[in-house]
Amino acid sequence: MSSFIRILLVVCICWSCSSDEQEPTMVTPTERRTTIPDPAFEQALIDLGIDNELDGTVLTSRLEGETTLLLADKNISNLTGIADFVDLENIRASNNPITTVDVSRNTTLLFIKLENTPLSSINVSNLTALEKLELGGSALQNIDLSNNAKLQLFDADNTSLSSLDVSQNPELFTLDVRNTALNCIQVSDDQLENTPLNWTIDDTTTLNTTCN
Question: Do 7 and 22 meet the contact criterion of CB atoms below 8 Å apart?
Fold first, then answer.
């Protein structure tokens, strides 16, 4: 067999082997998405330019860096998905049929306004930076403010609030709890002696260092 034929056979064999090898498949990683089950909430996010399609989800990466959500009067009943707004500082969602909300993971929140809603309770224990909490006209019945030492304003007028302890809120300079079921508000010694002028309570509500 001539040298030329041998070389030709080797080339053919090598080409055949290489053609059997499959090209590696490039896999594009799937971007994480956050579920938004309430279409009214998602539509509000679309209106704010955060989302772009009403499909029940939003790219989680588009929620990062968002510090303010203005959601008043949007007919929102479910805020599921809000937990992924990891930089959220300000949420205003008054005049919506919201019955529950979980903000336990939104630890950067400074301002919450959920007035005139059927919300009966809200857990703000993880929100140690919280400064203003406005829940007037809601269905609020109870709330624990013991971990909110930086709270400056608490508004819960015209609610069903029946107990309140603000003794751990030394910076609370504005308080409005008129037209509630409160008979007594538990306060610190300093608050009792130097009650801020911007505290507004019913005539039938007393301030005391201990409330039964």
Answer: no
User: Is the model's pTM score more than 0.70?
Assistant: yes
Q: What is the CATH number of domain 31-208?
A: 3.80.10.10
124 touches 143 (CB < 8 A):
yes
Average pLDDT in the 40-45 region?
Answer: 98
Residue 177: closest CA among 163, 191, 197, 167: 163
State the Cα–Cα distance between residues 60 and 105, nearest whole angstrom.
Answer: 15
Where are the domains positioned within the chain? 31-208
- Residue 2's pLDDT band (boundaries 50, 70, 90)? low
Amino acid 81: pLDDT:
98
Q: Give DSSP secondary structure letters for 127-174.
A: -TT--EEE-TTS-------TT-TT--EEE-TTS----EE-TT-TT--E
> Is residue 8 predicted with pLDDT exceeding 60?
no
Average pLDDT of the chain, as a whole number: 91
Count Cβ atoms below 10 Å from residue 94 Cβ, excluding itself. Answer: 18
Report the alpha-carbon distance of residue 135 to residue 111 in Å, rounded. Answer: 11
Picking from 167, 145, 170, the residue whose alpha carbon sits closest to that of residue 155 is: 145
- Rounded CA-CA distance 15/123 in Å is 68
